[in-house]
Amino acid sequence: MESMNTTLVGRDRERAELAAFVAAAAGHALILRGETGVGKSALLHDTAARAERDGHRVVRAAGVEAEAGLAYAGLHQVLYPLLGDLAQLDAGTRAVFDAVFGGAGAEPGGPASVMTLGIAVLNLLSRAAARQPLLLALDDAQWLDDASADVCGFVGRRLAGSPVKLLAAARSDVPSRFDTAAWAELPVAALSEADAGVLLDRRHPELPRAVRRVVLEQAQGNPLALLELPAQFAGRSGELLDDPFGQHTGQPGVPLPRRLQHLYGARIQALSDPVRAELLKGALDGAGARPDDGAAPGARYRMRDADEAVAAGLLDIDPADGGFAFRHPLVRSTIVQLATPNQRRAAHQELARVHREHLERRATHLAAAAVDPDEEVADVLEAAAESATRRGGALAAVAWLTRAAELSEHHADRSRRLADAAFIASNAGRLGQAHRLVLADLASGTTESPAAVLAAAYQALYQDGDVRSTHRLVAAAVEKVRDSGATEPDEVVARLVDLLLGLSSFAGEEGPWDRARELLDSLGGLVTDGSRLYSDVWSDVVRHGLGRTEPVADAVAKLPDLEPWDVTRLGITAHHLDMLSQYRPHLQRVVDRELETGAVASGLVMLHLIMLDQMAAGEWADAEQTGERVLGLAVEHGLELFAAQSRAYLAQVAALRGQLARARDLQAETEAWARPRGLGLLTQTADAAGASAALSAGDYEAAYLYAIGVTAPGTFQPYAHQAPRMLLDLVEAALHTGRAEEARRHAQAALDAGLPAISPRLAVVTYGALAMTAETEREAAEMFALVEAHPDAARFPFEVARIRLAHGTRVRHVEGRAAARQYLLPAAEAFERLGAAGWTERAQSELRATGAAPRASTLHLATLTWQERRIADLAASGLTNKEIGTRMHLSPRTVSSHLYRIFPKLNITTRAALRDALSRSEEAVGVGVGVGAGVLV
Length: 937
Hints:
This is LuxR family transcriptional regulator. This protein is mainly alpha-helical. The protein has 49 helices and 7 strands.
């Protein structure tokens, strides 16, 4: 009995009312009413079990649809367990029962009236309840025959003062005599979204995320659907989950279990043919559903003349526009399931005509209506797939391209479409599906075609991190294309070349990059401008990145029109050039859709890019949260490369925040996975995390060893992406370990290599390194002034704080304590805001050395992130949200959201109070705006 209690989820209110019903001293009747499968029976049985524990005698009965036409069949079921008490009743009462149930004492003339029989039932119940309270639990009351229902209704209205209680459960969507019984009612609604999730997770804890989402959407809180639907996905291929109920193909998809079909099937079959046809068109077009294909709600088919379905409880009237809407998603699914293939194809054909002007909706219906090869339909599907991919619908695009291949009239077109589908499936993280699509094109060969190479390469890279053999495989495929005599660039070449560049980037060493760049040179005009841009910037930004910022900046406006993998490639390029802040708003807008229905692999790269920009901007808590999210998703999808990359970035964040044990654990885990596989990108990132952790702990010798493991002092290791990024690490570690000459040589090498002209961050750190290693105070001051005056210095708060700390320390030794405070105070504040624990302690120590009193936390300002503080200062200066957004590369809406978070942190409610709040906070910690602080705020 206890297990029954633990299975009920989200029914606290109903169970409390039912407990009061059982505990009440006076007898009465109550009816549980709700739609089919909503959990009425579970509540009924739970209450019966409770009553038994409380000492009640419980009699259970249930209406049976097959006996609904047999007079008194239901009443006999209810009273049969009590007929043993008939002998204790008077002869007249016994005669009434004999007349109804055909006993030996039955007399001619038929059964008594409802009142006579009802009084006799009341007498029997009173006698049966004389020894202990009695509960009658009647399930499926809607199926009781009319005569039994009338008697039960009569009895239920007259139980007051007796120890008898009558609890019935009836469907709200099936008319019955209990609708007018005038009993107290307890409505049983669908579960809330949260409770539905709890029930599903409790009964099906291992359900994949995609299946879980589909089940929750279809069930809409109906417990029966939540428990029945998951079994239908057992053993189904992953691609079926992308369109489980046939919305893109028009096929039935996953068949509904019989119990779920029964919920609405009888009412659907009772409709007239025209109304059923109307509902089928609405169901196939998603009428009343969430628009998940880019169509506005009004663009869906609008059902007409369907009042009959409203009366049957299948449709509701949408109060927003007065149109028809399906009462439950399962109604739509059942309608599609019950239709014949010919009926579905005819409906799709008509819907295709309705949606002539909407490419993707027309493609959906043409795909389902077609039977024989049709090149015109295949062309429409191909165009729809391209459109879907650009708006985050890669999963739908794979389905459409696969169907387009099936409908192709020529083998070359079939092969091309299957290759496109396989490529998109690879980027969508459906690596097994991509392999199967390649195998489906048997005539083109399964191991040597470009499509086969791409599918195999993505699988080996994403799942296993196999960069070495995969690089050789793709390089050989590029050579084959080069030697085939092709003269014009095409999609196949671009895909192979861009994958080769990605593999070279993950390798992060000279051999793969030399091979890749040699191949690109030999391809000549077959290589696109985009691929050449990636080759230059990804390979070695120090030697090839100069002058490459303009095309990356110009591409920002074109991002909405690009496919997701092109967006991520440009984003990676922007990261190398320290321009990610311009890309982040777009990435944040589209990443969720890619992870949900689009190119999952591209979505994970987008999250990594967002994380990297959060790290650069000093939003380290957000960066950690983003990193944990992408790590979980990568593990869930079995994409181990992205999981390892996430751990490497999380190690960097932990090191910056002074979480040294966590940083070293993540660093070691990354190293153990990446180094045997030759993944230089990840091992260098792990080395950078090690250097950061060592610097945070003040272990400068360890930091120096990590830094020179990436590049030697005075040079920048070719193709080592972390070499320029660790400029300050190497310089500071060398200075603190007595290697001043090496530090000076490395800073000068950065200037000689032209780093300040390549990116704003490289400019800031180069001038900062020169200031740290300057041989004269004048030179140090000049270099430091260049840092402070740089227009983009505010975008790199951690680097600037490090430079200020180093410069303030130098000034203290040369010019005295008072002169140093103007640099050390803003440095300490910045470290505190960032959450850089080790650096904060070091800066505070330097401040104490100047004679400054120990400082408390910076009050409200310390709770603001660097970005929030920047926005607050700009808003306090009178700039509008749009003007702030332009400066910060944010949308006005994002600026507004930040301000709403800032106000409670500063204990204010209006924009006008910002200036005073910021001034009070600064005064509270004894900080003037000053020369040093003014640049960043």
